[in-house]
């Protein structure tokens, strides 16, 4: 009987104990690695395709990390008030496949962004396209474009 062998053999007990620890460690790492996948959302969950918006302003911050790259822009309203807007892009890997680099957007760059507003009215936009300071207009690799099967650079 296996139980009796393990119970009376300290070395065999140690082997099973080490294997159990490795299995638990691997399971924990697998769950930790999968967590961002569960946190990911669809376009329709957060953004409203029927609330298009175009904003122009100066880039204040760029976050190049998964699951989505993000950047922030100070937009001057008609009355002179400056509001900081957050723009969600595609994943860094997807953006690089479309020709983006970490230096495509820099603090201080003037950009014009087209996208869809957040459903909750927050200053958050899923960017569809970005007109860069050098005049190029590029797709943003947004989740809206991914759902529609787009993502090529505009010329």
Descriptive notes:
The protein is α+β, with helices and mostly antiparallel strands. The chain folds into two domains: 38 residues; 106 residues, Beta Barrel (OB fold (Dihydrolipoamide Acetyltransferase, E2P)), CATH 2.40.50. It is 34% helix and 33% strand. A hairpin with a 6-residue loop joins strand 1 and strand 2. The radius of gyration is 24 Å and the shape is elongated.
Outline the secondary-structure elements.
Elements lengths: L1 H7 L1 H30 L3 H4 E17 L6 E7 L5 E7 L3 H6 L12 E9 L5 E8 L5 E3 L3 H6 L7
Helix pairs in contact: 1-2
In short:
The protein contains five helices and six strands, in the order αααβββαβββα.
CATH architecture of the largest domain: Beta Barrel
Q: What's the number of domains?
A: 2
Provide the β-strand percentage band: 25-35%
Which residues sit in consecutive blocks of at least 5 with pLDDT less than 50?
150-155
Quick tags:
single chain, 155 residues, alpha+beta, OB fold (Dihydrolipoamide Acetyltransferase, E2P), 2 domains, 5 helices, disordered C terminus
């Amino acid at each position: 009987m296996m139980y009796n062998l393990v119970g009376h053999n300290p070395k065999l007990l140690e082997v099973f104990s080490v294997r159990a620890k490795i299995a638990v460690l691997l399971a924990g790492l697998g769950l930790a690695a999968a967590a961002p996948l569960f946190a990911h959302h669809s376009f329709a969950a957060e953004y409203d395709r029927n609330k298009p918006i175009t904003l122009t302003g100066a880039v204040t911050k760029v976050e190049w990390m998964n699951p989505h790259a993000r950047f922030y822009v100070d937009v001057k309203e008609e009355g002179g008030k400056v509001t900081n807007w957050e723009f969600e892009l595609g994943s860094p890997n997807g953006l690089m496949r479309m020709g983006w680099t970490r230096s495509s957007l820099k603090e201080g760059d003037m950009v014009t962004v087209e996208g869809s507003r957040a459903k909750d009215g927050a200053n958050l936009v899923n960017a569809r396209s970005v007109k860069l300071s050098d005049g190029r207009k590029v797709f943003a690799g947004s989740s809206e474009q991914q759902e529609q099967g787009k993502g090529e650079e505009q010329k």
